[in-house]
Amino acid sequence: MGHRVRVLAGLWALAEVVVFVLVAGWIGVGWTLLATLATTALGWALLARQGARALGELRERARQRRPSGRAVGDAGLIAVGGVLMVLPGFLGDVVGLLCLLPPTRFLVRGLLGRAVASRLPAGLRGPVRVRSARTEEPLGGPFGTGAHASGFGRPLIIEGEVVREERSPGAPG
């Protein structure tokens, strides 16, 4: 795994240098350096704005004791996008913008979700549907009668069944 990461990082750096040289040949070295500085400044500004917004949402969810959910993922994508924008290189700037801008962040989130899901064992992949029915019958078995989960004199029993869709070996997903 570490070897793959090093190879990908090396290929990424090589691609950044090639793009930098192509842009410098197209618009000139001075303008290319100015564009690199401009994208770095834009990266800092977007990181500050979007990062403050994401941290505010995380803070609000924590204050209301709600699960963080997508807000944590957005904060991570904003951090990665900010780093990519601040580092010199035009390819990193494009990917960083995709991570930083809210209208395009869902694309990156979807790609990462598919990549992670494809690496999971087949038994852990979704979709899993859960059907449940609520009944109010006394608890039996080891708890006996009189043991009430709700604590209000009535038993709280939720019967459920997890239904997993089986996929054929050649099916996508």
UniProtKB/TrEMBL annotation:
<dbReference type="InterPro" id="IPR007313">
    <property type="entry name" value="FxsA"/>
</dbReference>
<keyword id="KW-0472">Membrane</keyword>
<feature type="transmembrane region" description="Helical">
    <location>
        <begin position="33"/>
        <end position="50"/>
    </location>
</feature>
<feature type="transmembrane region" description="Helical">
    <location>
        <begin position="71"/>
        <end position="91"/>
    </location>
</feature>
<keyword id="KW-1133">Transmembrane helix</keyword>
<dbReference type="GO" id="GO:0016020">
    <property type="term" value="C:membrane"/>
</dbReference>
<keyword id="KW-0812">Transmembrane</keyword>
<protein>
    <submittedName>
        <fullName>FxsA cytoplasmic membrane protein</fullName>
    </submittedName>
</protein>
<feature type="transmembrane region" description="Helical">
    <location>
        <begin position="7"/>
        <end position="27"/>
    </location>
</feature>
<dbReference type="Pfam" id="PF04186">
    <property type="entry name" value="FxsA"/>
</dbReference>
